[in-house]
Amino acid sequence: MSILMEMSMFPTDKSESKSKEVSEVIKIIRESGINYQLTAMATIIETDTISEALALVEKCYLKLEELGCNRVFSTLKFDIRKGHENRLKTKIESVERHIGEVSK
Fold this sequence. Notes:
Helix content: 40-55%
Strand order of the largest sheet: 2-3-1-4
Number of helices: 3
Strand content: 25-35%
């Protein structure tokens, strides 16, 4: 099974710039060993189970709490598909077969 999760998480009670706190969230994701893709607006993560994806969300939140964030905004979107894997890569390749190379 492939769980694609698009996640955005940041504090709303800190400064206008969120890069410091977002960097700490990305560090948690990177250190988890889970396949991910950072974009300008969110991070896309691919796991084998939904519980693995949700556990990572909790770790990220706990990091922001540890940093003293009292209010956190987060969005999550899921694309769950049985019998598939490596969709972070293959979904893009599928589009490229139709229109050629895209920006990544």
